[in-house]
Amino acid sequence: FSLPVKNITADVDQAKITLRGVPDRPGLIGEVLGPIGEAGISVDMIVQNIARECTTDITFTVQRTNLERTRSIIETYRDTAWQADSVEYLDSVAKISVIGAGLRDHAGTAAKMFQVLGEAGINIQLVTTSEIYISVSIEERHLEEAQRLLHAAFNLDAIDGEAA
Amino acid sequence: FSLPVKNITADVDQAKITLRGVPDRPGLIGEVLGPIGEAGISVDMIVQNIARECTTDITFTVQRTNLERTRSIIETYRDTAWQADSVEYLDSVAKISVIGAGLRDHAGTAAKMFQVLGEAGINIQLVTTSEIYISVSIEERHLEEAQRLLHAAFNLDAIDGEAA
Ligand SMILES: C[C@@H](O)[C@H](N)C(=O)O
Ligand SMILES: C[C@@H](O)[C@H](N)C(=O)O
């Protein structure tokens, strides 16, 4: 039985943009992110949940050095190309990811990550997953503690993060 | 310049569970997913956006054969371990993913995927990303068309999906 988790990575270079109450119509998210991609700004996490009463929220993260450029693009297109109830910008978030092949097949890996952070009183702001990553957004001040706790919980060598 | 997108994958074996209005407190998501992991049920996509007024929604997907078992676990723990305004269960969703190394560094890849689906009138219900995956949830009836359009948009050989 191989341990599913191979590594834990942390990234503080995250600035978060949250669009509240955008219409849930085809093409909307492409209209929002299109001009940002054309400006050569890389987008990291993109999170959107199921709409409620025909609107939903979209959150995405960029590198902190790109927050102001992203803000000016968003404010240019807002109310011309698309509408949102409000837009929030925040530059002190951090991302921590659990990485391993076939995470999906290891029932409970994500739950374990969430439980470890929960028991330490660390609030999870965003969650996004794929077959080999589980990433969460937390406050930057918790990042070091979160890394230490997750290394211990998944039996990883704390120094370089590789599976012990 | 290497093309960022290497492959497109599709998965119809997706059943979606959405918890509406859960309290945004540390430990909550671990309490929800813990019993599901303990039952040996693998969870695929997990999506949670930034809370609004101290509550948020959590969506996750399981294989369709596990929907009923997941439902009975959720209904057992609901109102005893955690609260939610409502819970929705849906078994006719599909996932389509764009896969490629370093997607984050290729500004515009995600926007292009979203624009292609938007122009075809295909509504995106959920979005979740990692460094090498961009996954969206759409209605199952759009899956074949979405695959065909994305293969063409990213210059992939339609037959086996590998980069042409
Ligand atoms: C909200 C947004 O994702 C919309 N559903 C779209 O397809 O673009
Ligand atoms: C909503 C849920 O993710 C909560 N913030 C937690 O940390 O568990």
Polypeptide structure, described:
- Two copies of one chain form a homodimer.
- In chain A, strands 2-3-1-4-6-5 form a six-stranded antiparallel β-sheet.
- Chain A has 164 residues and is α+β, with helices and mostly antiparallel strands.
- In chain A, helix 3 packs across helix 4.
- The two termini of chain A are 15 Å apart.
- The first copy, chain A, is elongated, with a radius of gyration of 17 Å.
- The mean pLDDT of chain A is 92.
- Chain A is 27% helix and 32% strand.
- The first copy, chain A, contains four helices and six strands.
- The interface between A and B is large, with 66 and 66 residues.
- The structure holds threonine (2 copies).
- One threonine sits at the interface of chains A and B.
List the helices and strands and how they pair.
2 copies of one chain form a homodimer.
Chain A: E1 7-23, H1 28-38, E2 46-48, E3 55-62, H2 67-77, E4 86-99, H3 109-119, E5 126-129, E6 133-139, H4 143-153
N-end to C-end Cα span of chain A: 15 Å
Strand order of the largest sheet of chain A: 2-3-1-4-6-5
Largest inter-chain interface?
A: A-B, 66 and 66 residues
Tally of DSSP helical segments of chain A: 4
Sheet with the most strands of chain A?
6 strands, antiparallel
Number of strands of chain A: 6
Give the averaged pLDDT of chain A, no decimals.
92
* Ligand kinds: threonine
Structural class of chain A: alpha+beta
> What integer value in Å does the Rg of chain A equal?
17 Å
How does the overall form of chain A come out from the CA principal axes? elongated
Query: What percent of residues of chain A adopt helix (DSSP H or I)?
Result: 25-40%
Helix and strand element order of chain A: EHEEHEHEEH
